[in-house]
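Hi Y.,

Following your request, here is the sequence exactly as I used it, all 291 residues.
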Amino acid sequence: MNQPARCILLHFFCILGTISAVASPLQVVADEADKSVQANGQTEGGFRALFNGKNLDGWYTFLQKHGRDSDPDKIITIENGLIHLYKHATHGDQVVQGYIGTDKEYSDYHLKVQYKWGEKKFKPRFEILRDAGIYYHHVGRDWVWPRAMQYQVEKTNIGDIVTVGNLQYDTWVDPKTQNERKPTFMLREDGGVEQMHGHQAGITHLAHRGQWEQPDWNQIEIVCRGDSSEHWLNGKLVAKCKNIQQPVEGVGNQKWFAPLTKGRILLEIEAAEIFFRNVEIKDLPASACCE
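Below is the corresponding structure, written out as tokens. Let me know if you'd prefer a different format.
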């Protein structure tokens, strides 16, 4: 190679080196941003992981007979990014029930959880529908079953609103079912009439408005704003309510109701093999509904 050609080639590599020197810090910043996102548990759309896929950091367990953070029967298994319930139990066994709960309380949020049924069923629910659920706004002591709102996860009844512990709320129901023990949710714009549920009843049920469960993985979404909530399944609104309230002891043992806007989130364990994954939450702007 002659001298002029060598000089031109050296000059070209010097330019490349300068470009690399400029680009490298930008790439470092991008890499650090990715690491920061991962470190903060952020996922797409501003959601962050509540379940890390490896263990129950940030959660506790509560099981019948065993109480808090004790699972001698190995009811709960964490593997391959999944929560697998009753993996080690034999089909038809008598099993304990309970839940996995968040250490923290949450308000004003959008929650996503994916679930898939397993094959096994157990006593005391061996002869009835497979059942589980997502509790939210859990307040008070731990026991089975605790005071909370519930997104019902029962085969063919996915998304029902269930209350436990004398809670109450307002919703809209199909007028043809308004006098039934378990009325069916109907959007107001479709002719639903407003109705209050709960108060003196220990447990209440509001039936979901449609069947959108899939054979494999399904996505649950719960949107809580102040004292209102919405239940979604696979992108479909299945039920919603407002004015969620809890009983409060007043003067002279008189009971009155106060807005219920926050609490722990629980994954219910109820005698059916089931898998949970991708438990994510997104903070929403604080609601002024109760001010």
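The chain has two domains: 1-40, 44-283.

Thanks again,
Q.
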